[in-house]
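Look over both lines:
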Amino acid sequence: MKKLNIKKKVWVIKLGEPSFFSPNFRYFRSHLIAETLSRRGHSITFFTSLYSYYDNLDYKKVKFKKLKNIKYIFLNGRINHHNSYLLKLLSEFFSSRDFKKKIKNLNEKPDIVITCVPSIILSRVVAIFCKKFNIKYIVDYRDLHPDIFLRELSFFKKIFAFPLVILFRKYLSFICNNATGLVGITKFYTNHLKKYVSINSLPARTFELSYKPILKCRKSFQSKDKIKKIIFVGKINKVFLNAYFDFFNNYNYSPLIKFYFVGNGRFLKQFKNHIKKNKNLFYLGNCSQKKIVSLFSNMDAMLYLIENRIDYLNSLPNKFFEAIYYKLPIITYNKGLVKTILFKYNIGIYCNNFNSLKNKISNK
């Protein structure tokens, strides 16, 4: 990220992201951006949901402390349990209304705004506000919505959802064509976003992601007799659970491999019911960042499991960068960009399932 020489007032807008006040706070992309800018002396106002569905936390019940250069404004989406895409949209609609109310009470306007998509409804409100007051804003595109939305639905549901997708595509086009810059989590995402930019608009720009590993190849797997401890950290949601059952299909446990899972989500109960029936699979709860870092120091590798869907195949998740930072080899059955980088820099193991992993480790 290019340094700003003049101290700026920056708004970062990301719904649902855990805040520094969460007891189980982990750094996600928006907070890494916010903290980096804060350390450089910029004044940050961070807009997020009053309810965080990452750690199932209502911030009404949390004690706050003052943070240097970072001010939080929590938006009330009214709906706390996002059990469906429709509920998420309703929550985002209410959050957008709350955003419009709360910015009226702010004395100073920002110099620049960073708004995150897939929150298309809120980002449109942000774009209208910035256009009205001639404020620069950047679109941080991290999901293939609205295009990916139809892929997740049955044919019957697609009929009713299609008009909504058309509307959101118009919203996204308006957001992109009035933005100062566009940022994708990978080049694939940025190129996808360019489809919404007219020829006369500002060309899309992206941050260059540096993913050259700081890790020697597979050093944790050199010893055959050592028990390998592998950790997964993330949301226990549908896309994880589908990948989990696929990877551990016909699970034949090995006494030399242990898996540890950290996280929370809608499918936690179903997940826990499965792992308690299998040896060497352990659930450690929803841990704080401090605890997770401590766990990393005792692990041999990080497990990356998610569905082989077009958006995930072309994405670089938080887990990928965490593994690199903490010098943990990556174990994945996912194809796509993560697999490409894994082979290019020799930073882990690609395998179709657990039994394939067991064979690869035993043959080292």
About this structure: The radius of gyration is 21 Å. The chain has a mean pLDDT of 82. The CA atoms of residues 215 and 327 lie 5 Å apart. The longest strand covers residues 43-49.
